Amino acid sequence: MLKKFFISMFACTLITCISTKVFAENKSEIVISNGYFSFILPNEAKNTYTIEKMDKGIYVCEKLSAKSGEGGFAFGLKIYREPKDYADMEKVKKIGELVDKKGVLYDMVLIRPTEIRYGDGETIEKNYSRLYDLGDTIEIKGINGYKYVKNQGVKGESLYKDILKKYKTALENNWNYSQFKDENLGCIYLTLSKSTKNLLNKIGYTYYDINNDGIDELIIGEISKGESKGIIYDIYTMVDRKPAHVVSCKPKEKYFVCDENFLWNEYPPKRNEKVAGVFILKNNSTEMFPKVMFIYDKKLNKKAPWFVSYGSNGNLDNLDKKTFNERKELFNSFERFEYTPLSQLK
Question: Considering only CA atoms, which of 345, 342, 346, 344 is closest in space to residue 222?
């Protein structure tokens, strides 16, 4: 029996009103367009889909599911003038940029259903799966004077060059505290080593999409051997298409990427007190939203010092040791990064 799923109210709205055809068909391909951009569906998809064109976006649904009211939203493509206009939306990833004749820039985003729903039957399931997978592989073209560049404004290699050059320059020239602060660079490096040569090989960088918005973050951290998780020293993200500093590690503090897309922060330990927090990095923002805090504090309860706090409400739940460790373990899958040493930066 085919398993049913639910779709977001946003996606349900899309499929309640199916527009007239906005595409051309031939023997080998189906061209979909909306005046700004176009893409091609393979001819095998013929008679399996329906299209909704709305507000600079194109939305693709499985035809029979949409017709019967069972959902069927597979993917959508839409352009946005400002990143903040879609930053709070779920299941939206930037995949490139569209530019008009005057140089006005738009972000191209891929939209997925927050929850999935389609009708019963092997044929419908096969058709839906094919359409869903096409969202990751279709080729997009700008039309009517618009130019589309795939992966533009997405890959870290092209976004954070100037930031990395500053760090390398700072370490090569033994910058002092004021110089680091004036350039909004993390100052942890001043406490690590007096050997510039050693630091340039000990500190590295990588790119990773922490908040799952399709845009790489820049992570600068410790190059370590063996099975060490590797400490993160600095994180940068993109805010309104410009690099922005998220956080810097302090002495005796530790940051890691855990459980795929969360940030794990171990605070500097104190006597009889240890605190670790799990944070979500908001899209198009440097704000880290607390998901859960794990607190060991004998001052609060000497016999049972294990506490958790969810969200930003500050309420503490007192737990037994076993439950406390089980909940921590849910987030203890740490990302192991292969950093490129700053010494190799050209």
Answer: 342
Tokens matching residue 20:
């007239």
What band does 22 get if pLDDT is binned at 50, 70 and 90? very low
DSSP states of 157-218 as a string? Answer: HHHSHHHHHHHHHHHHTT--HHHHHHTT---GGGGT-S-HHHHHHHEEEEEE-SSSSSSPEE
Mean pLDDT of 159-169: 96
242: which strand partners?
239
Digit-coded pLDDT (tens) for 210-228: 999 999 999 999 888 765 5
Strands (DSSP E) found in 284-346: 288-297, 306-310, 317-319, 340-341
Largest CA distance in the chain: 75
Q: Which residue would you say has higher pLDDT here, 274 or 3? A: 274
CA distance 167 to 173: 10
Distance of CA 62 to the CA centre of its chain: 27
- Contact at 8 Å (CB) between 207 and 156? yes
Query: pLDDT at position 212, please?
Result: 95
